[in-house]
Amino acid sequence: MNIAPQPSRAFRLIVTGGGTGGHTYPALTAIRTLQARLAASGRALDVLWIGTAEGLEARVTSAEGIPFTTVATGKIRRHANPLKMLSPANVRDMARVPLGVVQARKAVAGFRPDVVLATGGYVAVPAGLAARMNRVPLVLHEQTVRLGLANRKLAGSAARIAVSSESTLPLLPEGVRPAAVVTGNPVRPEVLTGHPDKAVTALGLHAFDRRLPTVYVTGGAQGSQQINDVVGGELPWLLERANVVHQCGPAHVAALSARAAGLPAALAARYHLTPFVGPELPDVLALADVVVSRSGAGTLAELTALGKPAVFVPLASAAGNEQAHNARHLEESGAAVALLGDVTGGRLREAVGPLLDDPARREAMAAAARAHGRPDAAERLVDVILSAATP
Ligand SMILES: CC(=O)N[C@H]1[C@@H](OP(=O)(O)OP(=O)(O)OC[C@H]2O[C@@H](n3ccc(=O)[nH]c3=O)[C@H](O)[C@@H]2O)O[C@H](CO)[C@@H](O)[C@@H]1O
């Protein structure tokens, strides 16, 4: 008797996480990489993303055509004073978590995933808990050195905890260490293949002076008031020496445009201000000789994978000073300059000036940065997802 080979059943994955780019893009990259891996062996991937309507994940999944559903969640606002954690807004939001868990349980039971992947952000909590209740293997991915709040809540329920750096391992609670695997933080593949000329065309940077270096200033999706203020104050100095692409966040465009309006025309021609850099991000990064940035884990993973000289202005209030830790870690090996504490125009000039003046210095910093990069992180995370499905 001849039995025709059965086409193998699709791999079913629920992804949960989001809020910021730092939690959203690693999940997106994991989906795409898993899809490619499965396709190579003739297998399909069915995905459902559980997120929040307000988070970046809603926009990203809609642009990518990824099925998306929301559940009730509670955003927990952190305070240094534990008593303030019990603010009315936090109490109200915590009360929403049980409803979210019920909704997520229904979603998980209906979708019957092989694995649930949680990449952090408060929406990951109900869906992660639902995975455990429905006995579906839960894989966590942590982008930062210390586990974020959501991942700390879920660590005890996880089959595997994929972390971005070896230095996370000793910081994990002892009971969950056997589940930990170092994968690195996945970087969107297209980020690694940008082209400078495409940035010039896409953003209309024809008046840039290509004999000068280009600085990319970025404060993350919302922009950074601190970076915008200090860079805004130093625009004449900076534009004498460089072209500048400045990603400032939607709330800061007006103030910076007003500053730019006061610049001499020759300098203004070398200044490009934008609230957000979308699909052209890889090309902007390719064009950049120096990056001035916050030190969120996603940005760091991208800049080290590419080997970009960077001056970091860490977000001071991030939980446990995680961004300062990230920046200092790279500075110690000559891979970046970290501007901690009060950042004045003078300090910015001292940090950026030598990099603009000296290509050899930039090259040395780029090489040191590249040594920290993990371009294979997505493939490693996919290994972890597949192995969790077949324990
Ligand atoms: C305020 C806050 O909670 N920050 C956290 C958040 O960072 P947050 O998401 O703000 O920043 P990340 O650096 O991790 O990621 C930002 C991502 O957005 C992209 N981008 C940014 C601007 C833009 O115009 N276009 C664009 O595509 C960047 O290239 C990057 O891929 O998650 C990170 C990873 O868990 C943490 O390390 C940060 O501490």
How would you explain this protein's 3D organization?
- Cell wall formation. Catalyzes the transfer of a GlcNAc subunit on undecaprenyl-pyrophosphoryl-MurNAc-pentapeptide (lipid intermediate I) to form undecaprenyl-pyrophosphoryl-MurNAc-(pentapeptide)GlcNAc (lipid intermediate II).
- It holds the Pfam family Glyco_tran_28_C.
- InterPro entries: GlcNAc_MurG, Glyco_trans_28_C, GlycoTrans_28_N.
- Pathway: Cell wall biogenesis; peptidoglycan biosynthesis.
- The chain is an alpha/beta fold and 391 residues long.
- It folds into 2 domains: 11-186 and 376-389, Rossmann fold (3-Layer(aba) Sandwich), CATH 3.40.50.2000; 189-370, Rossmann fold (3-Layer(aba) Sandwich).
- 43% of the residues lie in helices and 14% in strands.
- The strands form 2 sheets. A 7-stranded parallel sheet has the order 3-2-1-4-5-6-7, with helices on both faces.
- Uridine-diphosphate-N-acetylglucosamine (UD1) binds next to α1, α13 and α14.
Record the SSE blueprint:
Layout: E1 11-16, H1 21-40, E2 45-51, H2 56-64, E3 68-70, H3 88-94, H4 97-111, E4 115-118, H5 124-133, E5 138-142, H6 149-154, E6 160-163, E7 180-182, H7 196-203, E8 214-218, H8 225-233, H9 235-241, E9 243-247, H10 253-261, H11 265-268, E10 271-274, H12 281-287, E11 290-293, H13 297-306, E12 310-312, H14 322-332, E13 337-338, H15 345-357, H16 359-370, H17 377-389
Parallel strand pairs: 1-2, 1-4, 2-3, 4-5, 5-6, 6-7, 8-9, 8-11, 9-10, 11-12, 12-13
Bound molecules: uridine-diphosphate-N-acetylglucosamine.
Uridine-diphosphate-N-acetylglucosamine (UD1) binds next to helix 1, helix 13 and helix 14.
Function: Cell wall formation. Catalyzes the transfer of a GlcNAc subunit on undecaprenyl-pyrophosphoryl-MurNAc-pentapeptide (lipid intermediate I) to form undecaprenyl-pyrophosphoryl-MurNAc-(pentapeptide)GlcNAc (lipid intermediate II).
Protein name: UDP-N-acetylglucosamine--N-acetylmuramyl-(pentapeptide) pyrophosphoryl-undecaprenol N-acetylglucosamine transferase
Subcellular location: Cell membrane
